[in-house]
Amino acid sequence: xxxxxxxxxxxxxxxxxxxxxxxxxxxxxxxxxxxxxxxxxxxxxxxxxxxxxxxxxxxxxxxxxxxxxxxxxxxxxxxxxxxxxxxxxxxxxxxxxxxxxxxxxxxxxxxxxxxxxxxxxxxxxxxxxxxxxxxxxxxxxxxxxxxxxxxxxxxxxxxxxxxxxxxxxxxxxxxxxxxxxxxxxxxxxxxxxxxxxxxxxxxxxx
Length: 206
Fold this sequence. Notes:
By secondary structure, the chain is an alpha/beta fold. It has one domain: DHBP synthase, CATH 3.90.870. The chain has seven helices and eleven strands. Strands 1, 2, 3, 4, 5, 6, 7, 8, 9, 10 and 11 form an eleven-stranded mixed beta sheet that branches. The radius of gyration is 16 Å and the shape is globular.
């Protein structure tokens, strides 16, 4: 496993380039988001997704989230009507995962098998944003929750200890908060709160 020490507020472009190279090589990374550290890989990465499923002990029904750079990128992977777009525009970037109807551009393995939905969010974190900008496409992402731990891990050195032989690259950006994202199902009208996390979405679901 390779560890890169990247500045949380002013990411070094050269190191971000190395992260993008790793993602393009079908590698599984751990990187910081605006809520906590998370697993990340390229959308079509069979090898990295398989590693992620094994680490988190996830079944085929697990719905992953796509981390998008902005609202225009969301439209490629999710069907958004005018009303939904207004709500998304008013509430992004933010630590909110939106459940939306998946488009045909989303690989079948990534969307919910029965509902054909996909989780999507736009992060505020400078490192995550710079990775997305350089990738030119969303990152498949998953909370860093391990089977034996109920909470996400916040200490990068502890993450390294636990995952050293299981991931390919780790970004160390210091200790992060361990808040989870708020999850909102936008396919319902009005939108339905699935999980309360870091963001208050009272206005969104009322």
